[in-house]
């Protein structure tokens, strides 16, 4: 009898055969590593470009600072007898002071006066970038906090509590001691109002986020913009300076009209 010997591999899966999904898995792993490497390279390139741009902006700001600000504030912004140190004041302070024309200072006095802006927006940004690079400080506010779409009623309450004693309840401004004054807030941009709150220019106190939250600052801005865009419900506002201006108006014009009428009647009687 002849015996037929079956191959040892018969009936069994060949040991060298790959799973049908192994090729798909290899392709997926390859794509994953390729994509990751590309993302890492792109990110590092973008960061390098951003860093280079920032350094260029800071360098331009430093040149502007040396030419226009160092006389009073020192070449390293350390301050001199003519001007305070700017280390740690942040970009917000620079943007407010230079963006409102208060700096460079035009003349010595109790406080810096608002005047025509001496620099372009781009130059102000470079100055702010340089000063903020010296030490941490208040940065520029987010645009969503400047849209004047907060709660105006809450903003009015916060303004009366924290600001009205100097700026007047209607933001018309008022006199302070030693020749200083709180300026009118009519026409001041939302950005500069916010920056003033976080930096405390002149005699103004600093309202950091622990005192007044960013959302509450937005509410105050909303209230001030409401006053700016809506006329006085009582007619002519007389500068919104309150009972003093109203009493003076009545004394001069009201009483004056009565006296003039009395004189006219007396003259007619004779």
UniProtKB/TrEMBL annotation:
Leader peptide range in chain numbering: 1-39
Leading EC class: translocase
Record flagged with keyword Coiled coil: no
Binding residue positions for heme c 2: 163, 166-167
EC number: 7.1.1.8
Gene3D superfamilies recorded: Cytochrome c-like domain
Compartment annotation: Cell membrane
Gene Ontology cellular-component terms listed: plasma membrane
Record protein name field: Cytochrome bc1 complex cytochrome c subunit
Species of provenance: Cryobacterium algoritolerans
């Amino acid at each position: 009898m002849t015996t037929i010997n079956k191959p040892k591999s018969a009936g069994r899966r060949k040991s060298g055969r790959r799973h049908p999904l192994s090729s798909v898995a290899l392709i997926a792993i390859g794509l994953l590593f390729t994509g990751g490497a590309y993302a890492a390279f792109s990110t590092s390139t973008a960061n390098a470009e951003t860093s280079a741009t920032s350094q260029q902006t800071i360098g331009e700001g430093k040149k502007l600072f040396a030419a226009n600000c160092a006389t009073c504030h020192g070449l390293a912004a350390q301050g001199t007898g003519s001007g305070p140190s700017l280390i740690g004041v942040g970009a917000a302070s620079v943007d407010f002071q230079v963006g409102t024309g208060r700096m460079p200072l035009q003349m010595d006095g109790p406080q810096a006066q608002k005047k025509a802006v001496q620099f372009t927006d781009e130059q102000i940004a470079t100055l702010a970038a340089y000063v903020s690079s010296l030490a941490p400080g208040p940065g520029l506010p987010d645009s969503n906090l400047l849209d004047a779409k907060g709660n105006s009623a809450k903003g009015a309450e916060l303004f009366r509590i924290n600001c009205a004693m100097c700026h007047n309840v209607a933001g018309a401004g008022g006199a302070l001691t030693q020749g200083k004054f709180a300026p009118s807030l009519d026409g001041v941009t939302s950005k500069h109002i916010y920056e003033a709150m976080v930096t405390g220019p002149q005699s103004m106190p600093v309202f950091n986020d622990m005192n007044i939250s960013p959302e509450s600052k937005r509410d105050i801005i909303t209230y001030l913009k409401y006053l700016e865009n809506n006329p006085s419900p009582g007619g002519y506002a007389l500068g919104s300076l309150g009972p003093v201006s109203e009493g003076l108006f009545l004394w001069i014009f009201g009483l004056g009209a009565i006296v003039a009428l009395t004189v006219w009647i007396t003259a007619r009687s004779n």
